[in-house]
Amino acid sequence: VELQLLLVSEVRSRTCVSDMSNNDDYSSYDPNSSSPETDDPTIVLHSDSLEVQMSILEGDNGHTHRDDKSNGTEKGDPDDAQSEECKNLLNQYEKEISEKWEAEPLTKSSQEKFDHPGEGSFYLTKEVEEEVLGPETYTLCGIGILRNGWLQKLARPEVYLLAFSITGITQGMNFSYAGGTMTTIQRRFGLSSKTSGFITIGNDLFEIFLSVYIAYFAGNGHRPRWIAAGILLAIISCFIFISPHWLFGAGDFVELEKKSATDLIIGINQTDTRKADIWQDGCKSTISEDQCVEEVNSGSFSNEQYAVIILQFLAMVLLGLVTSLYYSVGYSYLDDAVPKNKIPLYFSVAGTLRIFGPVSGLALSSWSLRKWIDPTASTSISPKSPNWVGAWWLGYWIIAASMVVPMCMMMMMPRQLPSTRKRQTDKLRAAAKQGHKVYEEYAKQLRPTHAPTFKDMLPGLKRLSKNRIFVCIIMNQFFFWGSIVGVFIFSTKYVENQFRVSAADANQYTAVISLLASVTGFLGTGSFLSWFQPKTKAVLISTLIISIGLIVSYLSQFLVNCNWGEIYGLENILDNDNLKTSPQTSLQKCMSDCNCGDQFMPVCVSHNYTYYSACHAGCTSSTTFNKITEYSNCSCVEHIIEDTNKISHPVVQEGLCDEGCNGFYIYLVISFFNQFFIAANRAIANIIFFRSVNERDKDLALGLLNVILSFSFTVCPTIIGTLIDQSCELWKESCGRRGHCIIYNNNTFRFFLYGLPIVGVTLGFFMELLLLRWSDDIDFFGEKEKELLGIMSLKDKKDIDEKEK
């Protein structure tokens, strides 16, 4: 607009003010030459409409003025009427410029000419623009013949934000559901925490080896369709997750459920051979002796376990693809389309809506695990029983169906949003105004339109390795996420054992707390940054405060626990030689007389004392009502109960004692602040990351970030899983092979679970101190871009100005 208005002013000064009968020959006026009145170069715009206007004004001494042809007269000098008409025409053209500029970008027949001192003339044509930004068809919604006009109205950042958020919800739902059902899969197939940790890292191994390449090539292609392809593979992964249930069914748990509660009780009188036979039959494994010998000879895992590990690992690998695409090209596509001062709010909305994914996954796992592994069969086992196995496979059907909608939405999105195109075009023209060198430098910072190659990737890696802000922020995220991923994976198991809450209840409470805290953290932080736009240094100081708050919350969770006391009968199972003195010596003798098996089916006596099983309590009969089993005639309870009234009428119910501890509710309150700090940190870290790299390096940088984080997600769960296994006191064994852990030492468990996060967040805190020191290099809200029309850093501008002088 400024260039065209300058042209109007120049034409007015040449034709409407001066006398055309003077010695200046207007017909010989060259619009490409410098103005005779000034040393400044004349900047003009060639267009069809301009040539029409210039033809009206064209005149010469002794020639007929075109405006007077209707009069049939020839005038060498323009009169006042002609001069007034000339001014009116120019005023009209000036008005048209202002009204039509936004609606009329460069066309094939138009071009802008820019002159700059020391660089000569530079023409910005439509062809040049498309060479840098790609053809206009990149901004069209739809696929194939489905490119209707109404679809083009959907090519907006808000519509993409919706599709992107739904993708994040389904991706997060899939991953959290897998984590929420992992303990049940361990129990069903007899897997250790170390093995489940190995399965989980399949999601990250893909990103370690292929994330950089996927991010680079997808980032320079049709990014939404790459995401759609990743969602399709995630749908396939859901069916792979389910396949172990198709292949192996419910296993031994349904067979054992066929035994009644009284079948698992042996009387004190060993002469009752019928009860003894029932006990041995009830506790007998459904695996035949020949099959057991075969599986022991095959290695450390059974054939069934090998198949489950491979299938679950493969499903995690496919899920890793959509995770990689979501975080790399998905966020960069949104960042390109939105102004920098608004991007904190957009990122916060996307992050907030994505929180519904993990929360929905945990809620879905809670719903699924409340159903028996075989929903068509009835069971007398309570969900609170350690032997309960829920329908872990059921929720994957719902997740797969929910992914169809975002996949179709992503398929229809354009390769480049019109808002992205407009912002880049404006910056190109602003860069051209500052000179050809500045234009070329800015064009190099844009995402290339040609097909990417491995050769082009190497310079980008070199640029990123020399970027200290980029290196610092990815190290910060490495320590931050690597430390908390273990808490996310094993928190359900921790709550089950530390507070004696069922897996379904643990997932339900965790889902609600995560939703409330994360929504508050994301939206609160993003809205504050977008509306108030504090200084970069103030934002970085807030990250330090957030890290300190997170460390304090982890320390608080570490200190919260419940002291449940010992499990009577566990010493007999462990064959512990250090038996305690009277009165427990008589209890040990009482249990030994029962000849109980090692199947863990705890019972609670008088709401305070937990026995390893009803057999260890000396019970001989039972009744079941509303899935609650109560035992009677328990001869071994009198050795620990001091209240004589309770001895005569003891209440013995199936399950662990879970009364008298309010630690779980305190734990939930602390978890709220924990999740809030995590969400707030992520909202800020994402923006710092994007402001640390150029547009052409965004996708490659995100690919490198995924590699670093995936390596952290791979190593840390394995380490934490191995440490947690060290806190196990009793393992379930089959055919002499160790399966999943039945009983943990809770004090050791919480030390390993929360010790590593405290160390990791502390290391990330030191990285944030370095970012604070280099805060001047971070253009958080794009203030420096605004000063220079969104083109260069202040240092580069200063260098060019000095060269020109």
TrEMBL record:
Keywords: Cell membrane, Disulfide bond, Ion transport, Membrane, Transmembrane, Transmembrane helix, Transport
GO CC annotations, alphabetized: basolateral plasma membrane
Membrane topology: Multi-pass membrane protein
Protein name: Solute carrier organic anion transporter family member
GO terms for MF: sodium-independent organic anion transmembrane transporter activity
Main location: membrane
Kazal-like domain boundaries: 584-638
Stretches assigned to coiled coil: none
Family in the record: Belongs to the organo anion transporter (TC 2.A.60) family.
The species this protein was found in: Meganyctiphanes norvegica (Northern krill)
NCBIfam families: oat (TIGR00805)
A single GO BP: sodium-independent organic anion transport
A Pfam family: OATP
InterPro entries: Kazal_dom, Kazal_dom_sf, MFS_trans_sf, OATP
Composition bias type Low complexity, residue spans: 18-36
Disordered: region residues: 18-42, 59-83
Record-annotated membrane-spanning stretches: 198-219, 226-248, 306-333, 345-369, 389-413, 469-491, 511-532, 539-560, 664-689, 701-724, 751-772
Biased composition (Basic and acidic residues): 60-78
PROSITE patterns per UniProt: KAZAL_1 (PS00282), KAZAL_2 (PS51465)
Localization terms from the record: Cell membrane
Superkingdom classification of source: Eukaryota
Transferase found in the keyword field: no
